[in-house]
Design brief:
Keywords: ATP-binding, Nucleotide-binding, Transport. The chain is of the alpha/beta class and about 290 residues long. The protein has helices at about 40-45, 70-75, 95-105, 110-120, 140-150, 170-180, 195-200, 220, 275-285, and strands at about 5-10, 15-25, 30-35, 55-60, 65, 80, 155-160, 185-190, 205-210, 210-215, 230-235, 245-250, 255-260, 270. The protein folds into two domains: about 5-215, Rossmann fold, CATH 3.40.50.300; about 225-270, no CATH class. Helix 3 packs across helix 4 and helix 4 (about 110-120) packs across helix 5. Bound molecules: adenosine-5'-triphosphate.
């Protein structure tokens, strides 16, 4: 589903959460990166039709979100997993999904129950379908969350920071699930975890202080750190020039990877960057250096 955003602004009192966002999203999985407070949740909530924009234009699948008709049309084709999804602790996943299905207008009881069963299968929760939600781990809760978002077979799936707080194994499992859902759908994934985008998305955008700093192919964001990423191996003190992205202690010394416009030491070796290093290079180039 095609999304077109033009000069989108949203203020909360004196806080400007979105400050003139222009963005185009087409099918597949799209990663929205940004630090805490960058405006990701605000953008997701506007796209989901639960928060109005202050100004600007958002068109989703040909529907203008500034009109009620447009919002209703989009909500019919939308699945949304907000950052904080309230689950009813005394319900089982089957009961919870059945309830959300009713709210989404899936009136045919047998068809709804069928869909709930299929979705529990898809997210790997069939074995615990009869257990109360209050005993579920963070990863299991997130999987219930994605199942409720998928009720009604939406063509657009919006997921806000879905991997926060998950252990590494759960995180990998969850993002693999998201990738598998992106085939025929557009999946918009908001996150501050660069690795989630590196592993799942071809297209990405980076938000900072309510503005789009970058939008395009993930490989082009990685390329931002081309020629400015270095490796240094030393048993001495850490490099002070540039941003140290990783430090791994090995028998021959600590291996530092550094993003810096200049070689951070005479024996620094230029290396191929990762997406995380591309992100760091972008953020660094966008941050004015302190004067003096
Ligand atoms: N309902 C609100 N009332 C007042 N300020 C808000 C509201 N929602 C968001 N903001 C402010 O807007 C800015 C953007 O917030 P937003 O939650 O969209 O960022 P984010 O990128 O999703 O960050 P996080 O990853 O921390 O959720 C922040 O300064 C935040 O404090």
């Amino acid at each position: 589903m095609h999304i077109e955003i033009a000069d989108l602004r949203r203020r909360f009192g004196r806080v400007t959460a979105l400050d003139g966002v222009d963005l185009t999203v087409s099918g597949g999985m799209f990663g929205l990166l940004g630090t805490n407070g960058a405006g990701k949740t605000t953008l997701m909530r506007i796209l989901a039709g639960v928060l109005p924009a202050t100004s600007g234009r958002v068109v989703v699948g040909g529907n203008d979100l500034s009109t009620r008709g447009g919002r209703v049309a989009v909500q019919r084709r939308l699945g949304y997993l907000p950052q904080e999804l309230g689950l009813y602790p005394d319900l089982t996943p089957t009961e919870f999904l059945d309830y959300v299905g009713l709210l989404k207008g899936l009136d045919d009881r047998a068809a709804r129950r069928g869909q709930v069963g299929d979705l529990l299968d898809l997210v790997g929760l069939s074995d615990v379908a009869g257990r109360k939600l209050k005993g579920f781990s963070g990863g299991m809760r997130r999987r219930v969350g994605i199942a409720q978002a998928l009720l009604g077979d939406p063509t657009l799936l919006i997921v806000d920071e879905p991997t926060v707080g998950l252990d590494p194994e759960e995180r990998i499992r969850f993002r693999t699930l998201l990738s598998s859902l992106a085939g025929a759908r557009t999946v918009l994934l908001s996150t501050h975890i660069v690795e989630d985008v590196a592993q799942t998305c071809r297209q990405t955008a980076v938000l900072a202080a309510g503005r789009v700093l970058f939008t395009g192919q993930v490989t082009d964001l990685t390329a931002r750190a081309e020629g400015v990423t270095w490796e240094i191996v030393t048993a001495g003190s850490p490099p002070t020039d540039g941003v140290v992205v990783s430090a791994i202690a090995r028998t021959d010394g600590t291996h530092y990877r550094v993003v810096s416009p200049r070689p951070p030491s005479p024996d620094a070796i230029p290396v191929s960057p990762s997406l995380e290093e591309g992100y760091v290079a972008l953020m660094r180039s966008a941050t004015p250096l302190p004067v003096g």
